[in-house]
Amino acid sequence: MKYLFSEIVLLTAMLFISETGIAQANKEHSFSVNFGPEITFPESALRRTHKIGFGGSIKGECTFGKHASATINSGVSIFNGKGYFDDLLSPEKNLIN
User: Fold this and answer.
1) Model-level pTM?
2) What is the pLDDT of residues 81-90, one digit of tens each?
3) Residues linked to residue 39 through DSSP beta bridges, in sequence order
4) Distance between CA 53 and CA 36 in Å, rounded?
5) Which long-range contacts (CB under 8 A, 24 or more apart) does 46-54 make?
6) Could you please report the per-residue DSSP string of 25-76?
7) Edge-to-edge strands of the sheet including 69-78?
8) I want to staple 35 with a disulfide (CB 3.0 to 4.6 A). Which of 3, 39, 58, 60 is the partner?
9) Is 56 a residue whose pLDDT tops 90?
């Protein structure tokens, strides 16, 4: 019961906070550029041959009106390959035992 009351209070507070938020942060007829670093984790078959990757992305946004804008995104990620001996020593392969 105690947790249910705290969840209701939290959801109510989040509702009122989100109602006062502004969806469009940029002014009309403006242009903004955002960029940042990225860390990418290989999945499935790529994980067997590659390590964690790194890179970056850039985004440009042009605001035309109160609720209209166009965005363009671009990014690059680099994955380093695993070495031959890394594969031999991995517990998945179990080639040493």
Assistant:
1) 0.51
2) 877 665 556 5
3) 54
4) 15
5) 46/79, 48/82, 48/87, 49/81, 49/82, 50/79, 50/80, 50/81, 50/82, 51/79, 51/80, 51/81, 51/82, 52/79, 53/77, 53/78, 53/79, 53/80, 54/78
6) -SPTTEEEEEEEEEEE---HHHHHHB--EEEEEEEEEEE-SSS-EEEEEEEE
7) 30-40, 53-63, 69-78
8) 58
9) yes
Residues sharing a CB contact under 8 Å with residue 58, sequence separation 6 or more, in sequence order: 33, 34, 35, 73, 74, 75
**80, 49 Cβ separation under 8 angstroms:** no
Long-range CB pairs of 57-62 (<8 Å, 24+ gap) are 58/33, 58/34, 59/33, 59/34, 59/35, 60/31, 60/32, 60/33, 60/34, 61/26, 61/31, 61/32, 61/33, 61/34, 62/30, 62/31
Q: What is the CA radius of gyration of the chain?
A: 23
